[in-house]
Amino acid sequence: MKKTSTRLADGRELIYYDSRDDTVRDAADRRPLEPTVTSSQVRRDPLLGDSVAIASHRQGRTYHPPANECPLCPSGADRLSEIPDSSYDVVVFENRFPSLAGDSGRCEVVCFTSDHDSSFADLTEEQAGLVLEAWTDRTAELSHLSSVEQVFCFENRGEEIGVTLGHPHGQIYGYPFTTPRTALMLRSLAAHKEATGGQNLFDDVVARELAEGDRIVLETEQWVAFVPYAAHWPYEVHLYPKRRVPDLLGLDEEARTEFPQVYLELLRRFDRIFGEGEPPTPYIAAWHQAPFGALAEFDGVNRDDFALHLELFTIRRTSGKLKFLAGSESGMSVFINDVPPEAAAQRLREVASS
């Protein structure tokens, strides 16, 4: 992998990740952009104890542009985009309309491919491996920022999820705090460690799924994917490396080599859940990594106790119908799932590649 860092016309950082070591990236951003002005701030909710990012400047962000005006496609002679070069493998750049910025963290965009009409599932294993390298590199770089405590790499796919740009891309958030969902995991981790005399909750969850077997979606030498026992979403898969590591930086060469094959297979199965002729399945793919900040509030827990894993889920519950977060889910955070996890796992096994 070759990494080339440059600056856009308004001062934002852009990084090319190339599979070839001899690739030259010297194209300049020729757009007449003014410096980016953001008004992001983080406010803490005194009742719930969580944090909310207030980012009013995002109201003016790009919204469903036509394909010939896509800001994530390479630049051409008659069209200038966020990527100055005429081609690219993988690109990461600072979001022009960030939810978090400055002392309140950082937001980046990850373009998986220059092909506007493809998706992550269409990538080759080499391309998917390069994305993994970009995620890992950005996790390492953002972890050194004083304004970042936790790094979150994720992809929103599909208009049903709220995606406003059709080009295959994801995002990376550098939060200035430990996110509420991770904090819940850490508290459960601490409680389980105390109750069991030192056993690791993540290890026990994976061991249970492997032992029971009926929720396993696929298993390889380095990875295991399963529908969790208490799945929140109609079709939800958790992907774990078999050797527990706290973050992407901890993956060894064997796990990195095997990841593209495993992940691409999962994404392709998701597109086959509802049968032939159905539109692409909307999904969220989310990497959960240990925070880089102090974990003093979680008794007896350190970073190495956390288990890196990816959670992949769709809000589509059946053909033509979405799972809406209504009163119980939105009002009380109590999920009601119409699809039994065992049935979801069975379906995801049925649609395996031949």
Structural class: alpha+beta
End-to-end separation in angstroms reads 31 Å
- Count of distinct strands: 15
**How confident overall, as mean pLDDT?**
95
Which percent range fits the helix content?
10-25%
**Element order: H for helix, E for strand:** EEEEEEHEEHHEEEHEEEEHH
Strand content: 15-25%
Structure keywords:
354 residues; alpha+beta; eleven-stranded antiparallel beta sheet; two-stranded antiparallel ribbon; 6 helices; 15 strands; 23% helix; globular
Model description:
With about 350 residues, this protein is α+β, with helices and mostly antiparallel strands. It is built from 6 helices and 15 strands. The strands form 3 sheets. The chain has an 11-stranded antiparallel sheet with strand order 1-2-5-6-8-7-12-13-11-10-9, sandwiched between helices. Strands 3-4 form a two-stranded antiparallel ribbon. α1 crosses α4. The longest helix is centred in the middle third of the chain and has 18 residues. The mean pLDDT is about 95.
Q: What's this, in brief?
A:
The protein has helices spanning 125-142, 180-195, 201-212, 253-270, 327-332, 341-350, and strands spanning 2-7, 13-18, 41-44, 51-54, 90-94, 106-111, 150-157, 169-175, 216-219, 223-226, 235-241, 283-288, 309-314, 316-318, 321-322.
